[in-house]
């Protein structure tokens, strides 16, 4: 085992000892080693199976076979979730053939950041994760179930389902993905069209044609944003079948994987004699494995927030120092858009998760003995599924990358260090995704251009006001201010400036996620402007220095002078409409990004200042 990975894992175990012990005690008390529904009254139980067919009623009332709860994020507006339409019926059929039963426990909301991008609805996006976790808990609160099948893929949906499932951690749980859409317009070409539109060189019709050629069928979007990062993390944490994350929808192999997931979930219930409670499968090793794979693949920066909250749901404490320390020893092995030209289908064809996991395991960067829902442990996940004579089998992953421009062995990485870094300085703490940032762009010192919204920056861009070296500061975009929307609209503008030869960077208390690309972007800056952060005192012309290599972010103005300034007050922004008024309490109660930007946990006394004073 790599000594740094081993040491970070030990630190997390020590830091989490009290919380983890309390969590395990809670889920073991909840289990009581018997099916939940035997504790229900006759009236409770009769209500629970009233709508079932007779054979299912008899199986449920005997309580000697498993009853699987299905939590679904299906809707037919999200391309990634549209294939889930017939999953519940198929899951019920497969599980009935095994002598058990399944019921849809409940549905959870699933919004698309691609549709709400730049719109008011995007301000609900991050908060939807906690709402999904709560909805999952409500779905499972009937205590009718012996296992949980999770149907969800995209950005906030998988983290929300994961958190909700861990509150019922005495039950086994699996995720059944639906897969990415087939490849459409190449990502580099799409990015070029977007930039041409931002520069006014083409019109809306041309842009819409390009977008429709990219997002063109059922399935997950093919770039490597949060949705596909979710899939890789669920796989490395052992909650999905190995090698199944990126098999396209509505194919024989995809259908066979779904059927096998049903079979495997019933095998790991208490009734089948091999119980694998999700709260025990997920432990400190699982979380470290997730961070390692995120870094090695150049995954979504959103998981600098989500993984913190997800780990917290299992009584595990991680922070950005852990990501940063791991990033210094984990090599970058993947180039997937926006960190390269390839999409997720090319990654899968090049060797995919099985090849990546084997390389990281061989290099001692993953905990091979971490528990999983399939096989003995993660060491068995260096495989890929295939159909042989109509039968699903797993074979060893490719021994060599089938496309070294997309996927490389650990001994020949794209970069010696991982894709995410922590930035520290007098402006606070933030994250930066460097996997797509060229070396010559990683150190920027330039005057600030300060705005309070994407729209304000767009006006400055269109007027030619920022055709110069600059560090664009977009503030009042944190969770307390407006829910921390992703700022994808900045990417074409800043990319255009960079292409014209200007030195440009972004500093924001908002998010960028999978849009983080070739422009250096210090994101998730904390404390945010709405919480009194120094970013709220910056002015146009203040000299800012961002050094991604050294991990620093500073305002070079005299400290006394800047501290004497009165902090800016955000322009009156809408807090009503598109449902935003329903989330007012979220904005008031939300924790800082480094603590997961969540309202779900009582973390009194555990603040970012606490993290900084107690760095391991």
Strand order of the largest sheet: 7-8-12-11-10-9-13-14
How many extended strands? 14
Q: Strand content of the residues, in percent?
A: 5-15%
Low-confidence stretches: 610-616
Question: What is the radius of gyration computed over CA atoms, rounded to a whole number of angstroms?
Answer: 24 Å
What global shape is seen? globular
Into which percent range does the helicity of residues fall?
A: 25-40%
Mean residue pLDDT: 91
How is this structure best described in words?
The structure is a single chain. The longest helix has 29 residues. With about 625 residues, this protein is an alpha/beta fold. The chain folds into three domains: about 350 residues, no CATH class; about 35 residues, no CATH class; about 150 residues, Glucose Oxidase, domain 1, CATH 3.50.30. The strands form three sheets. The protein has an eight-stranded mixed beta sheet. A four-stranded parallel beta sheet has the order 2-1-3-4. The chain has a two-stranded antiparallel sheet with strand order 5-6.
């Amino acid at each position: 085992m790599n000594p740094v990975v081993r040491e970070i894992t030990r630190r997390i175990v020590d830091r989490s000892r009290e919380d983890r012990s309390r969590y395990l005690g809670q889920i073991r008390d909840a289990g009581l080693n018997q099916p939940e529904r035997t504790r229900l009254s006759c009236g409770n139980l009769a209500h629970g199976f009233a709508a079932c067919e007779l054979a299912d009623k008899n199986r449920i009332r005997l309580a000697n076979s498993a009853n699987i709860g299905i939590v679904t994020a299906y809707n037919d507006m999200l391309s990634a979730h549209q294939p889930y339409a017939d999953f519940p019926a198929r899951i019920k059929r497969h599980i009935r053939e095994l002598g058990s039963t399944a019921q849809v426990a409940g549905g959870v909301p699933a919004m698309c950041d691609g549709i709400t991008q730049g719109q008011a609805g995007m301000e609900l996006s991050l908060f939807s994760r906690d709402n999904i976790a709560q909805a999952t808990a409500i779905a499972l609160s009937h205590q009718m179930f012996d296992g949980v099948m999770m149907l969800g893929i995209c950005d906030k949906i998988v983290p929300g389902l994961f958190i909700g499932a861990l509150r019922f951690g005495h039950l086994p749980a699996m995720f059944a993905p639906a897969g990415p859409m087939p490849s459409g317009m190449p990502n580099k070409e799409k990015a070029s069209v977007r930039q041409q539109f931002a520069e006014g060189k083409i019109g809306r019709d041309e842009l819409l044609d390009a977008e429709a050629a990219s997002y063109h069928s059922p399935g997950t979007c093919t770039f490597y944003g949060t949705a596909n990062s979710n899939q890789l993390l669920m796989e490395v944490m052992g909650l999905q079948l190995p090698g199944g994350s990126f098999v396209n929808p509505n194919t024989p192999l995809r259908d066979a994987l779904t059927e096998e997931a049903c079979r495997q979930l019933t095998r790991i219930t208490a009734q089948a004699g091999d119980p694998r409670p999700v709260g025990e499968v997920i432990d400190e090793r699982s979380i470290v494995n997730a961070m390692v794979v995120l870094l090695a693949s150049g995954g979504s920066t959103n998981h600098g927030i989500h993984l913190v909250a997800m780990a917290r749901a299992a009584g595990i404490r991680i922070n950005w120092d852990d990501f940063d320390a791991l990033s210094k020893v984990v090599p970058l092995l993947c180039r997937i858009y926006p960190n390269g030209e390839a999409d997720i289908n090319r990654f899968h064809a090049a060797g995919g998760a099985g090849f990546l996991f084997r390389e990281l395991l061989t290099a001692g960067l993953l905990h091979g003995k971490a528990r999983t829902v399939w096989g003995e442990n993660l060491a068995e996940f260096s495989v890929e599924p295939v159909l042989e004579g109509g039968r699903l089998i797993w074979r060893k992953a490719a021994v060599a990358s089938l496309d070294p421009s997309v996927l490389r062995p650990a001994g020949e990485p794209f970069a010696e260090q991982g894709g995410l870094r922590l930035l520290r300085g007098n402006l606070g703490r933030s994250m930066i995704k460097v996997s797509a940032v060229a070396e010559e762009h990683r150190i920027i010192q330039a005057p600030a251009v300060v705005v309070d919204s994407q729209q304000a920056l767009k006006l400055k861009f269109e007027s030619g006001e920022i055709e110069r070296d600059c560090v664009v500061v977009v503030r009042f975009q944190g969770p307390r201010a407006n829910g921390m929307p992703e700022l994808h609209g900045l990417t074409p503008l800043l990319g255009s400036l960079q292409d014209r030869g200007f030195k440009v960077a972004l500093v924001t208390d908002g998010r960028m996620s999978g849009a983080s690309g070739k422009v250096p972007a210090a994101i998730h800056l904390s404390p945010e402007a709405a919480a009194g952060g120094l970013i709220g005192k910056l002015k146009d012309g203040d000299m800012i220095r961002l050094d991604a290599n050294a991990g620093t972010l500073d305002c070079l103005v005299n400290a006394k002078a800047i501290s004497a300034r009165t902090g800016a007050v955000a322009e009156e922004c809408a807090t009503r409409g598109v449902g935003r008024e329903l989330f007012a309490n979220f904005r008031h109660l939300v924790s800082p990004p480094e603590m997961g930007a969540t309202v779900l946990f009582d973390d009194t006394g555990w603040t970012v200042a606490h993290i900084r004073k107690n760095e391991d």
